[in-house]
Amino acid sequence: MSALLEGKTALVMGVANRWSIATSIARALHEHGARLALTYEGERTKDEVEKLAGELGGGLALHCDVASDESLANLRAVLESEYKQINTLVHSIAFARREELAGKYYATGRDGFRIALDISAFSLVALSRELQPIIKPGGSVMTMTYLGSVRAVQSYNVMGVAKAALEASVRYLAVDLGEQGIRVNGISAGPIKTASARAVSGFTNILAEVALRAPLRRNVSANDVGNVSVFLSSDLSSAITGQVIYVDAGYSIVGI
Ligand SMILES: NC(=O)c1ccc[n+]([C@@H]2O[C@H](COP(=O)([O-])OP(=O)(O)OC[C@H]3O[C@@H](n4cnc5c(N)ncnc54)[C@H](O)[C@@H]3O)[C@@H](O)[C@H]2O)c1
């Protein structure tokens, strides 16, 4: 593989298991020469993430719950002492209660709305604030989003609203961090079978619809997304910021 990311350090957040999009992103970044640090949400995912970190160059596997400011501050302290600075931050994190990912959007509860927006959108803001002092100029922040931010996708409900907030945050953060030469972008991936995706009611119908109607007549893989994360981490994308890049086999451009 190329050494496109040689000398760069990437923090990848959101590995839960081998199906996670963040796993493919971490693998792709490693294959192109990046040194990695991974984070895990809790004890349930710790072993899997430590194992992956071992396979991918032996970088750090750190605990971070994005719902906790203290956890974010700890993350920064450890990164600063172990790596000094990082070049790439990959935010591949989202959560909504299963009951909010089915039925009517208007049935979303106040608490369910707050949790989905906090974990899936605000966390990017909080992480950007906490980590910006240790992201090198020329660095790249990226987050994962989905078409449900701009279209009403059945059952995606509050997560679509969270993704809209996330994509708006990408633009505001791009302006804020642009002063330091840091770029911020979103990758809007087509549907991929992961634990989070399976929580969306009727997810397999979405996969079937994309395979039928996308210009490329197929679904995307997490590897397709991993490749774009390499591009966004590298200097090849040095003038791209504040954008949402669709990695969806073209599905989003199709009308009738
Ligand atoms: N799978 C898809 O079809 C698809 C499509 C487009 C975008 N996305 C987005 O990609 C991202 C990754 O999702 P995935 O599909 O790989 O599923 P996944 O379940 O493998 O990953 C979600 C991750 O979020 C983490 N997370 C949740 N709450 C957290 C918290 N409080 N603190 C820290 N981490 C927390 C989980 O531990 C997990 O690692 C999400 O933002 C998702 O919305 C997924």
Helix segment count?
Answer: 8
What class do helices, strands and sheet pairing give?
A: alpha/beta
| Name of the CATH architecture | 3-Layer(aba) Sandwich
**Rg calc:** 17 Å
Low-confidence stretches: none
What structural keywords apply?
256 residues; alpha/beta; Rossmann fold; 7-stranded parallel sheet; 7 strands; binds nicotinamide-adenine-dinucleotide
Characterize the structure shown.
The protein has 256 residues and is α/β, with parallel strands linked by helices. The protein has one domain (9-249): Rossmann fold (3-Layer(aba) Sandwich), CATH 3.40.50.720. The protein is built from 8 helices and 7 strands; from the N terminus they run E-H-E-H-E-H-E-H-E-H-E-H-H-H-E. A 7-stranded parallel sheet has the order 3-2-1-4-5-6-7, with helices on both faces. Helix 1 packs across helix 8 (222-233) and helix 4 packs parallel to helix 5 (157-178). The longest helix is centred in the middle third of the chain and has 22 residues, at 110-131. The chain is globular. The N and C termini lie far apart (40 Å). The mean pLDDT is 97. It binds nicotinamide-adenine-dinucleotide. Residues 14-16, 20-22, 41, 45, 64-67, 92-95, 119, 144-146, 189, 191-192, 194-197 line the site of nicotinamide-adenine-dinucleotide. The site of nicotinamide-adenine-dinucleotide has 27 residues, from helix 1, strand 5 and helix 6.
